[in-house]
Amino acid sequence: MNFNLTQIPDRTKKPRNHGLTMVMDKGLSLEEAKNFLSVASPHVDILKLGFGTSFVTPNLRQKIELYQSADIPVYFGGTLFEAFLIRNQFDDFVNVIKDYGIKHIEVSDGSITIPHAEKCGYIEKLSKIATVLSEVGSKDAEHIIPPYKWIELMNAELSAGATYVIAEARESGNVGIYRGTGEVREGLVQEILTKIPSEKIIWEAPQKAQQLYFLELIGCNVNLGNLAPHEVISLEAMRIGLRGDTFHLFLDKA
Amino acid sequence: MNFNLTQIPDRTKKPRNHGLTMVMDKGLSLEEAKNFLSVASPHVDILKLGFGTSFVTPNLRQKIELYQSADIPVYFGGTLFEAFLIRNQFDDFVNVIKDYGIKHIEVSDGSITIPHAEKCGYIEKLSKIATVLSEVGSKDAEHIIPPYKWIELMNAELSAGATYVIAEARESGNVGIYRGTGEVREGLVQEILTKIPSEKIIWEAPQKAQQLYFLELIGCNVNLGNLAPHEVISLEAMRIGLRGDTFHLFLDKA
Amino acid sequence: MNFNLTQIPDRTKKPRNHGLTMVMDKGLSLEEAKNFLSVASPHVDILKLGFGTSFVTPNLRQKIELYQSADIPVYFGGTLFEAFLIRNQFDDFVNVIKDYGIKHIEVSDGSITIPHAEKCGYIEKLSKIATVLSEVGSKDAEHIIPPYKWIELMNAELSAGATYVIAEARESGNVGIYRGTGEVREGLVQEILTKIPSEKIIWEAPQKAQQLYFLELIGCNVNLGNLAPHEVISLEAMRIGLRGDTFHLFLDKA
User: A25, A30, A32, A56: best mutation site toward chain B, by most B Cβ within 10 Å?
Assistant: First the structure.
């Protein structure tokens, strides 16, 4: 950090196993990705190539290598996994993963419906070749999952081999753990936390008010996801109490 | 495309005469424009220098050449045309067009009121020196044009020599074919489509929900405009069913 | 400017003492800052490193030098000043300012409560080593300051040595001189202007509708702040009537 300030909360350091910031790249050019890394690299733990953007992005191989050479693991958005699956191309998916030297995989069912045992089967199988992040929650705003079910799903997926479970929000932050307005389903989140360790959950939280909620609830080292690349420095300042919203959060109450 | 996936709808290829993506540059630097092209070039068909930004942007000549050398035609936002016109500087406008080697022109009346025959006169005259895109719809939210009138205006402008008609939305997507909330005036759009071929219309659709509406209504090769540069890759993924919103749109119904 | 257009209002030229555009950088990389300057430099008068982002941004020294070498003064967001102050590290703050060669300082009390005489004491002291911009208004939406009090505070701070007073809005534009919806508190603004010269006030106005309000009220050379870097060219076009919103604002009424 650039200056000496007292009462700055302890952030975990890379490689972190919690306190993660997961960023969504939805089509940066190579040069933009380099610029992004030059300023944000110490604060980015994992990078998602959002939904199916990796299918249409030129220079995909170079971009993956660029991130990996900065020690930032890359994975394809779960929508791509689902796109292969619904086309009966699971083996092709595995080959793509291997071909691109990808070491992290998201297993999700946000757009498709599969029996949960089958989803856990994919988690188990893929966890043998990569670190698996599994996502819980539907992209369909009409499809409400009750809290006890979120807990059951998360537990089963962690047992099946997922290293983290991701709580769904979409890029816009208006489904899954949020209402259509972006407001946090607080009861849901708090009930989940009675049963699942917060270190194992990555909360998709693209909006500032959502990030603030989790910083207040869990602390500066909460795992947050779906950050836009240009928001990473702002989030890092906010995590340690150097933004108006969190200014008093970590100060000694004297 | 980077992988083999079945059931990907057929996108038209450049140079496209429909399936267009029109992007609004409202002040990119040369370097940013290069970065943008390096990732989005295959997916950008035409580029608008938004409203009067070309008046204040440094390196304008180089930027126009940069886009043109990537085979992407450039035009000035209609507001600039109107700014010359209201100052009785139409001839100056033509000279600027020639001086900068511009081959595409937008003729609009979003901020000014001119008799429609006069507007069509400009379209006719300018279509002799360039490809004309004419824009229908007012930037004034209070000025509601009934559907039959949209159709009359569009037909007359195409007859006068416009290659495409653009349906107005502004950069923010809240006038013209949209309500103040950004919601599509669906009845209007559907009535227009009974009389004007969709291939001839570029729908300004800066918001994701607006893009989705047109993809569902018209298909993956709908002409869409006013895209922000960094949204082009996302849109392309969405066009072919690789984003949650359009995931099921192009899959075989078995 | 790139073309000849009549009836373009007279913008002040750099170095301006009013007509200022103040930009908030909340974590640009060096390369991004260079790109930004290459297009926006003539239109940027002062640059704020937003809230505590300067604490976590790598290459801070080089970035400050980069802006300063383009004759754009840099200052730390007031939240950083307050973060030092609440930790009883005022002297450390002064040393940081000197160490980084900073010549502009924001003195604010948006997140902390200090007696106003004490705030004015800091303004007086710091104005001996730098140009002081002092900010009036709380980041706390519940904390409403009545108009006469805004005027008292602004007058006292200008008398204490502030070169400009900044009217608080946060990055999001929803506190201070705005309602939670972003709507301008028009009565407040107009009452302030009966007593404080508009040349001495920088209005934080991150939203387009807010910029428009001040352009209509005060004219093209109003001081505006908290602009996002990529909005500077758009704002400049809007300032001189080359955007739909301001198209008629500066035209001769014949």
Answer: A56
Which CATH number characterizes residue A161's domain?
3.20.20.70
Cβ contact (<8 Å) for B1 and A56? yes
For residue B243, the model assigns a pLDDT of 97
- B252 found inside a domain: no
**Model confidence at A64: pLDDT above 70:** yes
d(CA A247, CA A215): 12
Query: Does residue C131 sit in helix, strand or coil?
Result: strand
Report d(CA C151, CA C136) in Å as an integer.
10
List, as one string, the DSSP characters of A76-122.
Answer: E-HHHHHHHHHTT-HHHHHHHHHHTT--EEEE--SSS---HHHHHHH
CB C251 within 8 A of CB C241: yes
Is there a contact between C214 and C222 (Cβ–Cβ < 8 Å)? yes
Does some domain include residue A77? yes
pLDDT for B175: 86
Asked if A2 and C57 come within 8 Å (Cβ–Cβ), the reply is yes
Task: Give the tens place of pLDDT for each residue, C69-80.
Answer: 999 999 999 999
Report if residue A48 sits inside a domain.
yes
Q: In the predicted model, is pLDDT for residue C4 greater than 90?
A: yes
Contact list, C237 vs chain B (CB under 8 Å): 51-53, 55-56
User: By residue range, what is the domain housing residue A91?
Assistant: 21-246
φ/ψ of B152, rounded to 5, equals: -55, -45
Residues of A in contact with B38 (CB under 8 A): 29-31, 58-59
Rounded Cα distance, A225 and A227, in Å: 5
User: Are C46 and C14 within 8 A, CB to CB?
Assistant: no
CA distance A59 to A73: 17
Average pLDDT, chain A: 96
Nearest beta carbon to residue B244 from set A51, A58, A60: A51
- pLDDT class of A254 with cuts at 50, 70, 90: low
| pLDDT of C254 higher than 80 | no
Residue A106 corresponds to which tokens in the numbers above? 């998201």
Chains within contact range of chain A (3+ C-beta pairs < 8 Å): B, C
- CA torsion, ordered A112, A113, A115, A116, to nearest 10 deg: 70
For residues A58 and B244, what is the distance between their CA atoms, to the nearest angstrom? 21
The mean pLDDT value of chain C amounts to: 96
**What is the predicted pLDDT for the residue at A214?**
98
Q: Which residues of B9-31 are buried (b: 16+ CB within 10 A; e: fewer)?
A: eebeeeeeebbbbbbbbbbbbbb
Mean pLDDT of chain B: 96
Q: Which residues of B touch A56 (CB under 8 A)?
A: 1-2, 43, 233, 236-237, 240, 242
Cα–chain-centroid distance for residue C52? 16
Burial-class residue A193 by CB neighbours within 10 Å (0-12, 13-18, 19+): middle
Q: Residues 114-173, chain C: which have Cβ within 8 Å of A? A: 139, 170, 172
pLDDT digits (tens, 9 = 90+) for A82-115: 999 999 999 999 999 999 999 999 999 999 999 9
Decide if A30 and B39 are in contact by the 8 Å CB cutoff: yes
What number is the average pLDDT over the span C93-120? 97
DSSP label at residue B252: -
Pick from B171, B229, B234: nearest CA to B32: B229
Number of separate domains in chain C:
1
- Does residue A161 sit within a domain? yes
Q: Which residue of C has its CA nearest to B88?
A: C6
CB contact under 8 A, B244 and A29: no
| 8 A C-beta contact, residue C85 and residue C115 | no
